[in-house]
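ok so I'm stuck.
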Amino acid sequence: MHGESNSPVRGPAKTRRIDLGLGVLQTLSAPGACWSCEEIAAWCGCSAQAVSAVEHRALGKLRRELERRGILEGLQHSFPGIQASNADARGTSKYAVRKGGL
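replied:
not stuck anymore, here's the structure
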């Protein structure tokens, strides 16, 4: 599937293809299995950079939601690998995770 010339580059069709690839990968994976961005990309028919971008956006959403609920501060005390970084262009806080952190 990866690298097909008729694969959509953007939009809802690409999103559906990635969702389908992730669903198949999750169904076939053993519990706790870890996959690299390159391996996920091969299943989803996209680039490793696209997978990394999706992961980055998802982690940002999670961090903002944890911050909104007041949970992030407690996690920072429990997991010292989480640290605040500068606000992004929209003024929302970003959090960096050092290797070994959450």
